[in-house]
Amino acid sequence: MIDLLTNLQAVEDFSNRSKFSRVLSKPFGYLQLFYYKIIKYRMLKKSSVVTADTFWGEQIAISLPASSDIFLSGGKTHDSEVRLCRFLINNYSKGDFLDIGGHIGFFSLLASILNDDKNKIITIEPSLKTFSILKINTIKQQNITPINYAIGNENKEIEFFEFPEFFAENNTLNTKQFDKQKWYANNLPNQRKIGMKTGDTIIAENNITPTIIKIDVEGAENLVINGLLNYLSENSPIIIMEFYHNSKNNDSHVAAENQLFSLGYNNYYISTDGRLEIINSPSSQYLAKYHIESDNIVYLKN
């Protein structure tokens, strides 16, 4: 694990450099990125699926220009995601892992190499385009099962919103949270019908007992938690949920958190060294106090 933490630190150090310093350190990488971002994406309106080396030493298929941070550094470089990686490296080694909103599988793939017993990892991704990349990334991982569904509070067909490739990580069941975002007006999503299942259904169908449930669903957090109530009432998995600042219409996050509080969970933030620190207030207050737009909040039962 020492090598993983050292390599992750290199990802963080790279992201903290000035742009000039980053370009000097990887000029060929930036030239490639310029081609993919300016020529292919902006001029030709085409994204590109390429491979990149991860900080744990395996290759991953990514879409450019959306995943430029992984392409250049081998990892996700947002502070909250670096800290989440550090938390997983320090704390996850066994048990099933349920990744709801797994995107291209970055965290699922990391969980797979951390999992000593090769327990089951279920990765849920509703977007067809993103799911096609997820399948590439997991086809050789026998303990990862990718599933092309949305997760919510019912088993039914629903409307799903898919953004242009550069904003694909914002694909969602609910676009309300983006109403005030500057990029939204010029990047409206396509809408299509997809299947939705509850987390309880996914757990039963795949015969898993997740010890960690990671939730990154862009505005459907309360639906996801409501669809997991049976499992959460009888078990005590660690919940990791991306939480938004009040300015981003975080009603769903707040409702989900309140539901978790009612089940006996407390909320924690991940410190810079990957340890958990209790928040002792609603997560929206924590984000507002420290002027954080979004963070991965960890929930543990008392």
If you had to describe this structure to a student in words, what would you say it looks like?
There is one protein chain. This protein has 302 residues and is α/β, with parallel strands linked by helices. It has two domains: 1-75, no CATH class; 78-301, 3-Layer(aba) Sandwich (Rossmann fold), CATH 3.40.50. Helices cover 38% and strands 25% of the residues. It is built from twelve helices and 13 strands. It has an eight-stranded mixed β-sheet, sandwiched between helices. A three-stranded mixed β-sheet has the order 6-8-7. The radius of gyration is 19 Å and the shape is globular.
| Number of self-contained structural domains | 2
Distance between the termini: 28 Å
Number of beta strands = 13
Q: Report the radius of gyration as a whole number of Å.
A: 19 Å
Strand content: 15-25%
Strand order of the largest sheet: 5-4-3-9-10-13-11-12
The top level CATH class name of the largest domain: Alpha Beta
Look at the helices and sheets and give the structural class.
alpha/beta
* CATH fold assignment of the largest domain: Rossmann fold
Order of helices and strands: HHHEEHHEHEHEEEEHEHHEHEEHE
- Helix tally equals 12
Give the fraction of residues assigned to helices.
25-40%
The CATH superfamily name of the largest domain is Vaccinia Virus protein VP39
Oligomer classification: single chain
Calculate the mean pLDDT score and round it: 93
Largest sheet: 8 strands, mixed
CATH architectural arrangement of the largest domain:
3-Layer(aba) Sandwich
Overall 3D form: globular
